[in-house]
Design brief:
Elements: E1 3-9, H1 13-26, E2 31-37, H2 43-50, E3 54-58, H3 64-77, E4 82-85, H4 97-105, E5 111-115, H5 127-144, E6 156-159, H6 160-168, H7 176-185, E7 190-194, H8 209-228
Parallel strand pairs: 1-2, 1-4, 2-3, 5-7
Antiparallel strand pairs: 4-6, 5-6
Helix pairs in contact: 1-2, 3-6, 5-7, 5-8, 7-8
Amino acid sequence: MNILVIIPAYNEEKSIGSVIESVKSRHPEIDIVVVNDGSKDGTSAAARASGKAHVVDLPVNLGIGGAVQTGYLFAYRNGYDIAIQIDADGQHDPAELNKIIASIANGEADCCVGSRFVQKTSYRSSLSRRLGIQFFTWLIHLTVGKRITDPTSGFRAVNRKIIEVFANYYPDDYPEVEAVVLLERMGFRVKEASVQMHSRTAGKSSITPFKSLYYMVKVSLAVLMTRIRNVG
């Protein structure tokens, strides 16, 4: 079974090398593609210097949706059976990879989301972030009738069928919540697995208070549109 880790990266020069090394040290059999999303720093050079990852350089910054879709297009064209998204900031622990791969590999799910909240972990987030996550959990339940405890988690694995779907379409901005609703509307089986996550190891988040508000409104509208339009 061919497995690919997709790492979208924007200005992650300080952390991308260690993330690649962490994945490869635990899973030397898994391939990696870093999608350098028009970074202004040395992200691409740092990823290439590792010698352990494919690197795709986007000429301009497309945002997280465009970068992730590029990774899925790479996976589709190169025949991978499973693709896994991992953030470039070190929050996602490669030691937890097998937990989200397992249900895909044994056919129990089409998509497995790594969740910080299925079981109690040491992860701690701000009150505003927790409220946002709870809101999107409620919104997903309202629209598709399913409870996803960590809908904003970008740590997720999908099978070949979903790789093909996402190679052709992937939500643009803050895509995680909308992607879950899209998959449920298309009849795919989405599950969660409890994983441990860490605080970012370098750099800073692009999410500001203003962007958080924009995120809430934009994603809510996108989810509602995905619920009512024909996506089958």
